Amino acid sequence: MLNNSPTMEDLDGGMASDVEREEEEAVTDLLRDRFRLYTISIAEDEAKQCGMEVSQPIITCISDLAFKFAEQLSKDLELFAHHAGRKSVNMEDVILSAHRNDHLAASLRSFCNDLKTKEPSLERKRKKNPRREGRVAPDLLRTPDT
Amino acid sequence: MEKENTFDPDLVHEIFKLVWKRKAAERGKNELSENIENEVGASSSKRIRPTFANANALKLSSELLRVFVAEAIQRAATIAEAEGSVKIEATHLERILPQLLLDF
What we know:
Chain A: It comes from Solanum pinnatisectum (tansyleaf nightshade). Chain A: Belongs to the TAF9 family. CENP-S/MHF1 subfamily. Chain A: This is Centromere protein S. The complex is a heterodimer. By secondary structure, chain A is mainly α. Chain A folds into two domains: 76 residues, Histone, subunit A (Orthogonal Bundle), CATH 1.10.20; 49 residues, no CATH class. Chain A is built from seven helices and two strands, in the order H-H-E-H-E-H-H-H-H. The longest helix of chain A is centred in the first third of the chain and has 37 residues. The C terminus of chain A is likely disordered. By secondary structure, chain B is mainly alpha-helical. Chain B has two domains: 47 residues; 49 residues, no CATH class. Chains A and B meet through helix 2, strand 1, helix 3, strand 2 and helix 4 of A and helix 1, strand 1, helix 3, strand 2 and helix 4 of B.
């Protein structure tokens, strides 16, 4: 974003990248709308529990906020994972992203533990072929070094 | 405790993937311009591969987003209640917004 001056490449691929950007924006809008649907149901549930009504523009506003938050979160998670030398984001990264708020981090951690305890059946299913994964993993680990 | 509705982890995944794809493409472009200057092209392919996430991390992220929305509504509801209103309006959201954003 800092170097906005057009280079030779930009001038060359100007048309193509414009089309691409438009497509990307369309996809983002679609995701934002789907995201809003979920926000509406969560917000209305929550408001009902408080015995309150929520005006529609407020929900839209909160939804856009949450969407921006999600985008920011994804950037944070990517950075955390890369800093740890990983290509994939795991639960620790998500908890780390909430480190400013102890209470939030604690509640996420308990949710994470719930997931872990709920999962053993799934884990076992996956563990049926751990050796195969074990064989693949060292190769995957080695390639970035070379 | 009944299961509350939350964001679909798949949807969260799609949002994440979009952002990561964009970032990976940016990295690729940066590497490309660097490579033109330095003429070192060996390491380019591995760093431009987009990040991916595991299923539990996505569930946890959707929970985090759900908490964000729930917290916004609850705080705004508290303010609205204090003002004797039964409907959450923009002014109530405005009041709680700064602290909400600081807390997340």
